[in-house]
Amino acid sequence: MNDENESNVIQLIHAAEPAPETGPKAGLNIHNPCSHVANAQRIVKHFGDQLLYVQGIGWHVWESPWKYDELGARKLVHELGRIISAEAAAMGPWVAAATSKTNREEREAAMLARFKWASQSESAPCVEMSLQCAMPYLACKAEELDANPMLLGVGNGVVDLETGEHREHRQADRMTKVAGCNYDPTAKAPTWEKFVSEVFNGDEELAGYT
């Protein structure tokens, strides 16, 4: 490696955010870490709990609950360049541990290739291809959305209509529809209570089953 290339690598290492993984694969189960499929795995790893691809509809982003948001999905994937730069920077110790000149040159080339792929991954075509490759890992069918009739989405969470429990939204619920109000356990419903009382002729015990 000549002095100019070495200087460029050092600058890139200092500019990149450190990553926990080291070595050429950075924890990816893939043959080539500089590929769209590798980027798909990165999307799953870093954003898998924030992205959902609904077949026939498109990308949804987790906003508690899920929201259809094609632009939001792409905004998340714009982070790929930073993530891959961090992977490349984390390869420094792996390069330094080379056992021979040839081995070191090979490892330096791999690290430089990773930095190059980080830049390429910020291009619009690469963002689109990476998202397409991630679809199989993050896909669900449209009928899986809002599929549980006993869960009522509200502004401040979910109400389980079977148990009466109020809890937070969860990605696994795959809920997209929310009532236009918050759940308030202390709220009163005088109109409804009056109607029930009239229907049951003032029988409070019987009305309690409603």
Model description:
With 210 residues, the protein is α+β, with helices and mostly antiparallel strands. The protein has two domains: 36-142, no CATH class; 146-208, no CATH class. 45% of the residues lie in helices and 11% in strands. The chain contains nine helices and seven strands; from the N terminus they run H-H-E-E-E-H-H-H-H-H-E-E-E-E-H-H. It has helices at 3-15, 36-47, 70-77, 80-90, 92-96, 101-120, 124-134, 190-199, 204-207; strands spanning 51-54, 58-62, 66-68, 139-140, 151-154, 157-160, 166-167. The strands form two sheets. Strands 3-2-1-4 form a four-stranded mixed β-sheet, with helices on one face. A three-stranded antiparallel β-sheet has the order 5-6-7, with no helix packed on it. Helix 2 (36-47) packs across helix 7 (124-134) and helix 4 (80-90) packs antiparallel against helix 6.
Q: Can you give me a brief rundown of this structure?
A:
The chain has nine helices and seven strands.
Could you estimate the helical fraction of the residues in percent? 40-55%
> What is the H/E order?
HHEEEHHHHHEEEEHH
Bin the strand percentage.
5-15%
What is the CA-atom radius of gyration, in angstroms? 26 Å
- Uncertain runs: 9-20
Largest sheet: 4 strands, mixed
Strand order in space, largest sheet = 3-2-1-4
Structural class by helix and strand composition: alpha+beta
Task: Sum up the overall morphology in one term.
Answer: elongated
Count of DSSP-assigned helices = 9
Query: In total, how many beta strands?
Result: 7
User: How many domains make up the coordinates?
Assistant: 2
- pLDDT averaged residue by residue: 88
How far apart lie the N and C ends? 78 Å
